[in-house]
Amino acid sequence: MRTRTSPHFLKLATVLFGGLYPIAEAAAETAPVPGYAVGHLRNVSMGPAIVEYLERIDSTLEPFQGQFIVHGGKLERLEGDWSGDLIIIKFPSFQDALDWYNSPAYRKIAPLRSANAQGEVIIVNGVNADHRATDILKSAGNP
Questions:
Q1: What is the mean pLDDT of residues 5-23?
Q2: Nearest residue to 72 via CA among 87, 51, 52
Q3: Are 10 and 27 a contacting pair, CB within 8 Å?
Q4: Under a CB-based contact definition with an 8 Å cutoff, are residues 64 and 41 in contact?
Q5: 71: which residues sit within 8 A by CB, 6+ positions away?
Q6: Taking the chain, what is the end-to-end CA distance rounded to the nearest angstrom?
Q7: What is the per-residue pLDDT for 30?
Q8: Which one of 59, 68, 126, 132 is separated from 100 by 20 to 30 angstroms, measured CA to CA?
Q9: Collapsed DSSP state (helix, strand, coil) of residue 126
Q10: Tens of pLDDT, residues 48-89
Q11: What angle do CA 5, 3, 125 make, to 5 degrees?
């Protein structure tokens, strides 16, 4: 099992032990961010194949520390068009999410879903707990 050091802990350690903030800040910036598997599914045919998929998916997530964050449920459309269900599964990192999706165990059950639902599936990077909206400006080359 991997462990991560919280950016907030590193900053606190710097205050307590002094002089190490640049090191702590660099470590916080390189700390792994979570990865997410995101599915937007529509027209799900809730038959035996989907039931089997739902019964088997949890065991494919466990080796990669995947956990459901959103799995359908109540929603209220506020803007734009929307139909279907949103599924978000959190992993320790982008690579863990990708490794889960490409794992033999998941690839074996994926056709049970894809043959019985329409939609899109993506893997996306999350952000650190101290992320602010303007942080994307730095990655876009803005000061």
A1: 48
A2: 87
A3: yes
A4: no
A5: 85, 87, 88
A6: 37
A7: 65
A8: 132
A9: coil
A10: 999 999 999 999 999 999 999 999 989 999 999 999 999 999
A11: 80
